[in-house]
Design brief:
Dna Topoisomerase Vi A Subunit, Chain: A, domain 2; 5-stranded antiparallel β-sheet; 15 strands
Length: about 350
């Protein structure tokens, strides 16, 4: 299969192949277990997991592993769960009919309902110790963190919990990392905001508060870089021009920092040149070079493209402040060690 055929077949598979069928096939093969439905999403998990972390949305035909912080379409699922290359994934699914009759289509059972048993001030010794290992004290984060106890399948659990915008909880402890009752970003507005700051996780946000003492800003906590979609970036840019990015000092942090800053440059270039900023994001689904597609669709002359990437915005990459450290929380922990010497 040549490149053109491979690309066309990949597009067909992403559009037509049922991702639920694929994951049910993994269940039949004994690779995963099916946990049922929560809301409009099907949940799957590895056999070693107490609760399934892989959410599959049959409406959009995508999956997301909340524990691993990754997801995508059905081809990406084959690459991750079967260790295949992109080409091998396309060839494998091309050999199967769009409607996979060999996978039993049993009516999904309803997942046992997760019940919140209590939400209170953090006091459990294990959680207090966990917070200390992150370079913080319970009193320093009491305005944001709670001790959340919940039950699932007759078993009881507890962790440090932070609220997110979907009405769920972001949960962290020394042995657990995940979400319940919905995922997504978290937002905190402090004082009278004059800028927006974006953090990968709650402990980065809390570390920034302790290190800086800043009080007047809006914080967007991603909880996963997978939540940093172009739709969110546009929403942030429309509401605020001064934006500071505090992502991780790794390949993923570099990728998403660059993506945000390029989106800001194109957005402000368009606004300054009376070009529409009402971008058709649905058109970009499955497009790898989203900015190239947007530039073409917006009829921006090729000779002007270089000027877009020189356009000055008030979006800044703040990772230099913790250069040499994975993230802000690691920097905080090292700062604490130095102070105590």
């Amino acid at each position: 299969m040549n490149y053109s055929d491979l690309k066309n077949e990949a597009s067909r598979i992403k559009r037509d192949f049922s991702i639920i069928d694929y994951f049910q096939g993994l269940v039949s093969a004994g690779a995963l277990k099916y946990e049922g439905m929560q809301g409009k999403e099907h949940f799957f998990g590895f056999l070693s997991q107490r609760t399934g972390s892989i959410a599959v949305d049959h409406r959009t035909n995508v999956w997301y592993d909340h524990a691993a912080g990754r997801g995508g379409d059905v081809l990406e699922a084959v690459q991750v769960f079967e260790n295949k290359t992109f080409a091998q994934s396309v060839e494998q699914l091309s050999d199967l009919p769009t409607e996979r009759t060999e996978v039993p289509q049993n009516k999904p059972k309803t997942a046992p309902k997760i019940m919140i048993e209590s939400v209170k001030k953090v006091s459990h010794p294990a959680l207090v110790n966990y917070i200390r290992t992150r370079g913080l004290l319970p009193d320093e984060i009491s305005d944001f963190a709670k001790e959340v106890h919940w039950s699932n399948k007759g078993k009881n659990y507890f962790a440090v919990g932070f609220p997110n915008e979907s009405g769920g909880w972001v949960l962290r402890s020394s042995i657990f990392k995940g979400n319940i009752l919905g995922g997504g970003i978290s937002i905190q507005v402090l004082g009278t905001p004059d800028r927006t700051k974006i953090f990968e996780g709650w402990f980065d946000f809390l570390s920034y508060l302790k290190l800086s003492g800043a009080t007047d800003f809006k914080a967007i906590i991603l909880n996963s870089t997978a939540n940093l979609k172009l739709s969110l970036i546009l929403d942030v840019l429309i509401k605020c021009e001064v934006i500071d990015l505090y992502l991780d000092n790794d390949a993923t942090g570099e990728k998403y920092t660059s993506f945000f800053m390029k989106a800001a440059q194109l957005y402000h270039y368009c606004r300054s040149n009376a070009i529409s900023t009402d971008w058709d994001l649905k058109m970009l689904k499955g497009i790898r070079d989203k900015f190239g597609k947007l530039i073409s669709t917006l009829n921006i002359c090729s000779g002007d493209v270089e000027g877009i990437w020189r356009f000055q915005t008030e979006v800044t990459d703040q990772r230099y402040r913790y250069n040499g450290f994975e993230d802000l929380n690691e920097f905080l922990k090292e700062s604490n060690v130095r102070e105590n010497r």
